[in-house]
Amino acid sequence: MAHTHTHDHHHHGHAHPHGHSHAPHAHPAQAAPWSILRMPVPARLSAALAVSACLWAVIWLAMR
Predict the structure, then answer these.
(1) Largest Cα–Cα separation, the chain
(2) What angle is formed at CA 13 by the lines to CA 11 and CA 17, rounded to 5 degrees?
């Protein structure tokens, strides 16, 4: 006796179209007085070392 039954699985796709539109001029671009990207590489490295030294100083002071 062959027993056959089918499983009718309804897979409901949840593809909801979410409108991802940006409002025109919601946040206008502002001219930056300086940019780290315009700094030369040695200046960037020295700035990174200075920031790192300051953060390590904070850690060192907190551990005392």
Answers:
(1) 84
(2) 170
Residue with tokens 């904070």: 58
Name the helix (H) or strand (E) containing 48.
Answer: helix 41-63
Q: What share of the chain is helix, strand, coil (3-state, %, to 5)?
A: 40, 0, 60
Give dist(CA 22, CA 56) in Å, integer.
Answer: 41
pLDDT in tens, 12-46: 566 655 666 656 667 887 887 878 788 899 999 99
Cβ neighbours of residue 21 closer than 8 Å, sequence gap 6 or more? none
Question: What token pair was written down for 34?
Answer: 């300086």
- Which of 26, 25, 45 minimizes the C-alpha distance to 36? 45
